[in-house]
Design brief:
Distance between the termini: 21 Å
Strand order of the largest sheet: 1-2
Helix content: 40-55%
Largest sheet: 2 strands, antiparallel
CATH class: Mainly Alpha
Radius of gyration: 14 Å
Shape: flat
Order of helices and strands: HHEEHH
Structural class: mainly alpha
């Protein structure tokens, strides 16, 4: 599945990454991580091991806002890459079919 190319300028990408770094330092984010659960797989994960994932990736036009970021284990975050939520769900279904 080929990702939709969203034309963001380098400045816009840098601004969103900067906002994400600020958000990671917030008490809100620390409380999210303290729950110790990956948003995608639901597995218990040490808070320090959780990463910030943009539900709609910055490269696809997503923003670094509380409504667009979740705590995810590194494995899920790396696997999700640039997928939108519906693409990620399809990816998981396809993986499940392959293993059955």
């Amino acid at each position: 599945m080929e990702p939709f190319a969203y034309n963001l300028t380098e400045e816009e990408m840098n601004r969103e990454r900067r906002k994400a770094r600020e958000l990671r330092g917030s008490q809100w984010w620390k409380r999210r991580c303290a729950k110790g659960t990956c948003h995608y797989c639901g597995h218990p994960t040490a808070p320090k091991e959780l990463t910030m994932d943009h539900i709609v990736p910055i490269s696809r036009g997503g923003r670094s806002t509380k409504g667009n970021v979740v705590a995810a284990c590194k494995e899920c975050n790396n696997a999700k890459k640039h997928f939108l939520p519906m693409e990620w769900e399809q990816y998981l279904k396809d993986i499940k079919k392959e293993t059955n």
